[in-house]
Specification:
The structure is a homodimer. By secondary structure, the first copy, chain A, is α/β, with parallel strands linked by helices. Chain A is 45% helix and 14% strand. Chain A contains 15 helices and nine strands. In chain A, helix 7 links the parallel strand 4 and strand 5. In chain A, helix 2 packs across helix 4 and helix 4 crosses helix 6. The radius of gyration of chain A is 18 Å and the shape is globular. Chains A and B meet through helix 13 and helix 15 of A and helix 13 and helix 15 of B.
Chain lengths: 327, 327
């Protein structure tokens, strides 16, 4: 794992995001920015939605995974990598591996939804399942990494991952002039901190706001207390934000570059999802609707402002979504 | 009604579509064109989806309605217009009226879904309901038009409507170079004929293909027989294509500018919708998925080609969609 963790140190600077953008050019999708006059009327502001649900594999995660894996040594490319995720990072790393010719092994819980196991296998990855009762994915990853001499591509807490995710913010600030605010959902903080680094460099006056589920407010509490707070197994539909805490790379970046953290309830999330699906015609997963929900629920003062909103992903089973909408 | 039907005659030429584009500039949305590498792999072609589900009011219908209503006399603008639709045209005409300051009265069946009545009222239209058992919407429209001296804005069979809808094809052929094929869904033929007029002018070599539900194949049979065929109350989930026949304006244009007509089953439509929702993350109504379904079901030879696909709209109740996907 040394190869991945030491090369660029613990900091992420704008030049790292910019270099990631070069690596991703022509490979990741430059996702469209959508607007909605009914949303604008409702929030009395101009909203610009950066649609990473249209990114390859259906979420922003592909950016960080590809940026990281494209910097592997020739040796590691040949022997392959190891990663763990029950969600979007698994598919992202698997596709990045397929493109780069890197064998990918993904550690997933044995009770992961069949559809996610299938999607990950569909990108050619090998899957190792484990019992949640017997071990954690981090322990298993560490053991397998040692036994098989494979580097681990972590889901968020690595400078290359953060730099890759930061290209979302870079593109949005490049494509939409004069943004006053930028709202980004927050799980492990890779997307939030990367976007903050990029946006603040290009537009120093922009206000960057992170959004968490109310039941998984570890980053919010960490941000306001200055100490890393952990929340385990939070009860929220936003599965991408169930990560227990910010990481050692992302926490300092969030403290340095983010201006404010807010939370929304699951009910508010569902209302925002309903608006995004019904009115804006985009399929957005619960975590992907966090930033929009914060604006629509009035958690942030936006009146008269130009507001960038990151829609982080759209991977949700349609029947599961129907259940949420029937609540 | 004379005011609307005589001014530009029965033909629609490229200059009419181009003039419509000028009227719609800054008012209608220039909708994005989406691509998908998984779709391309699946159909072994390059597909370009023109996403009119992102158009204002959720379908292409806004283009034709606004183009027509913006050409009303000052007198008609003040007194208002009459239209009939249980679907997308009602919302489109209502919003166009709101923007232009034209009072809009919409004739809708008394058993229309509450959500559609609400959406139409939400744009400020007045609604007149009727019993399907007692009259037809065309009869009622004619009677009210006479009694109230209001012009009728028809849903498809008018040159200004056709010219407005044609801007969809115009934008797609402008935004995507070297298209070989253009697939467009067909109900009353306004969108299909307008797009064909525009696309053939800009790119004479392009092959334009209309797509209907198998159970509502009136236009396909009309096209191949050269005689106007009517299919009443067809059993298909594609409600926007349940119109009984092409119109007197649209039929000759379809004969002149369209190269081929194909049909797809409701089962194929649902499979295409599932792909568009699950993989491409866009909310598409059944009629809106017709053109994509024709390609995915292999109704058209597309291998190695550059294929424009019009996604016409995204207005569907989420619970209704869940029922379709559960089939």
């Amino acid at each position: 794992m040394t190869e991945l963790s030491t090369e660029s140190g613990r900091e992420v600077r704008y030049k790292d995001v910019s270099a990631a953008a070069d690596r991703l050019s022509g490979i990741a999708r430059r996702t469209p920015v959508l607007t909605s006059s009914s949303l604008d009327r409702r929030i009395r502001a101009n909203a610009f939605l950066k649609c990473e649900n249209f990114q390859r594999t259906g979420s922003f995660k592909f950016r960080g995974a590809f940026n990281t894996m494209s910097q592997l040594s020739a040796e590691s490319r040949a022997s392959g990598i190891l990663t763990y995720s029950s969600g979007n990072h698994a598919q992202a790393a698997s596709l990045a591996g397929q493109i780069l010719g890197v064998p990918v092994t993904v550690i997933m819980p044995e009770d992961a939804p069949a559809v996610k196991l299938e999607a990950t296998r569909g990108y050619g990855a090998q899957i190792v399942t484990y019992s949640r009762a017997e071990t954690t994915r981090e322990e298993l990853a560490q053991r397998l990494s040692f036994e098989r001499s494979l580097p681990v591509i972590p889901p968020y807490d690595h400078p290359h991952i953060v730099a890759g995710q930061g290209t979302v913010g870079l593109e949005l600030v490049e494509d939409v002039e004069d943004l006053d605010l930028l709202l980004v959902c927050c799980g492990g903080g890779g997307l939030l901190s990367g976007c903050a680094v990029a946006a603040k460099h290009i537009r120093p006056g922009i206000r960057v706001i992170g959004v968490e589920p109310a039941a998984a407010d570890d980053a919010t509490r960490s941000f306001y207390s200055g100490r890393l707070v952990t929340v385990r197994d939070p009860d929220t539909i936003a599965d991408g934000a169930r990560t227990p805490s910010l990481g050692t790379i992302t926490f300092p970046l969030v403290l340095q570059f983010v201006d404010e953290m807010v939370t929304v309830t699951d009910g508010e999330l569902i209302e925002a999802m309903r608006f995004l699906w019904e009115r804006m015609k985009i399929v957005v997963e619960p975590t992907g609707a966090l930033a929009a929900a914060a604006v629509m629920a009035g958690r942030v003062a936006v009146e008269g402002k130009r507001v960038g909103i990151v829609v982080s992903g759209g991977n949700i089973d349609l029947q599961r979504a129907a259940q949420l909408f029937a609540r």
